[in-house]
Write a structure and sequence with these properties.
mainly alpha, 35 helices, 2% strand, Mitochondrial group I intron splicing factor CCM1
Length: 730
Amino acid sequence: MLRNASHKSTRHVHVLDLIAPSAFAHRPASTLSRPVMITQPSAANDRKKFPARPASSQANDPAVLCQNIKDQISLLRNRGPAIPDPDVLFFNQQVVELRQALSARDIHRAWKHWFQLQERGLLGLFGPQLRGYSESLAKLCPQSSEAWNPADRKVIEEIALHSATAGAVDALVACMATYLRSGDSKAALDLYARLLQVSEGKDLSTQSLTPASEEDAEVDELVMDDSHPRSSAHPKVLLAAITAHALENSFPAALRAYLQSPIRFPQHLMKEFLLTLHDKSLNVKVEDYVRRLHVARYVSEPRFLTARISAFATSRDSQGLEKLYRSLIDGISGSEPYIAASPADVTVEQPVALEEINWAAFLTAFLRCNRRDLAEALWNDMVRFRVRPTVITWTALLDGYDAMGEVEDAEKAWNTMLAVGVEPTAMSYRAIISTMFDARKSDEAVKYFALFQARLTNGMTPTSEHSLTLYNTVIHGLLKNRREGDAHALLQRLREKGPKPDIISFNTLLHYHGCRGDFRTISLVLEWIREDGLVGDVYTFSTVLSALLKIGRTDATDAVLNLMRKQSIEPNVAVFTAIINHQMEGGTEPGLRAAMELLQKMEQNAEAQPNEVTYTGILASLHRHDWPDLTLARQCKQYVLERMKKRNIQPNRATYHILIKACLENPAPEGMEDALRYYRDMAKRKISIGPDTWYVLLRGLIAREAWAVADELVDDLTRERTLYGALESF
């Protein structure tokens, strides 16, 4: 790897009771006279309140009602004069006629009423009813455009486009699908372009129409929609456009369209849409396009991609990590490249580029997963693509060797980095120092620390954040190597000369002395925290709690809560939950008892009632660990489940995933039994069992080498659905 190192390379406002006057008698008088408080944003974005409409003998007068409502509409929309009476009545009459025409599948009559509304500028008054119109029009689109009457097509397209600008896209998608089935990609893309043109500044990425009740759907026809301007297409419409580009064999055009919108396609949406096209070869091509588009989206958001890489490394999922990396390399050097190896290589055909932080993240992740082969392949790829590693990549390499405990390799990398003229940063020093401390080579670590301090005197100016991170690493390393005197001396120097230690610095000392039951020193550290004007965090208080439990304090939880209050911290749900989770992580009986005591205190505190997150975290920890006292653990599980039931807290899909994963991480036989019980419970409660559920189950079973059970689940899966996505790798 190192031998090539020197290579350069709307608000939505429902308006009540606005229908034809003849219909007023069908609504209860109490509804008509109910006071309404309307608010309107002022120029300064304040909300100005208008007086409630008074109930009076005139309240049932249709003319009065219409005028009141129109005045309120005018105030809301800030568009000057109220809507004239004739327009109000005309709109509602035409809406009724339009609905009847669509129900009768009479396109020409529907167009007559639509056109009349358009002529009088009243189309903007439509609201949720557009959904129903769009759905009705979608059913009128033929299978093939050859069988489409040109006049009918024009009517459907016009109404479909207007409906789509308000989020009701069924008709537009059906129109585009008709063209796609006929191989007319140009017509489909023309429709897409027209939509973008007429909807410029609007957000079409989700259904933006306000849902109406059954009564509203029948009576309240006038609904205002003043959506804030945005710009993106609805997923279904964008998918249809991507399919049209696939018909034209133009992936670059599909990529440009996709990157202009912030949305992703859910797998089920893609499957459902492609089934309507009845073209297997096109389906395969579109699925390939979408897969590559998703990869491009990752690359276009470097921080998101880095987080994804780190998640794979944290879970030690080298298979998923490799698959992601291979997809990126294919995007750089495959038969149809669409990813640039670096920002300097961006072209029209390769509009997205891998940032160096992404190369570096992969490098560290591969080494953390003990995949030296992949790390070496990555380094060679960087050389092949003329991506010259800077200090960012070298630091990532050092971090990777630190994670592996490879001291000699770290030293070689350090020396090579210096030899090729790369100046180390504070984070580079942090990585090599951490490696030495972790290998119990504290003298070597201190030497590197001295080099860093010498660099500081010679003009090196790292950020205070990076410097403090390095100092905290040194404090931790000194304590780990039982050099607590040096650690305390360094902390005092930082307190006096800077950079000022943060709460992490003090927490490091608290943890060290807490593990030894040295509460006298803990008290001293807490006093330093107070003197420096810092406030403890969740880790601080949980560490103190663990230390109190270690020395046998029966009032440990009360003592910690009092300490928090002294620092003006009133424990809320989030704080309680975090401390409970931290206590549960250790898998010790004292920690479990303390966590359950805190839970009971939460239940008695009206201001910090436990929620689903609290109970799920406790249950997950109870399942994850193989507790020495199984009876106590089972009692705690039963207590939590009973409390959830009493509080009507039902596990949802995400909760089940957390619990199943935790169960399968428990090596004891009951871990698998509990996981399967939760799986059956999901089925019994008719909770959707999707690809992510199967992934959690199968990944956990394979990690346990429970092949027979995994095979049974695969049989269940294949009976229910087709494998796709991450499941295909199983």
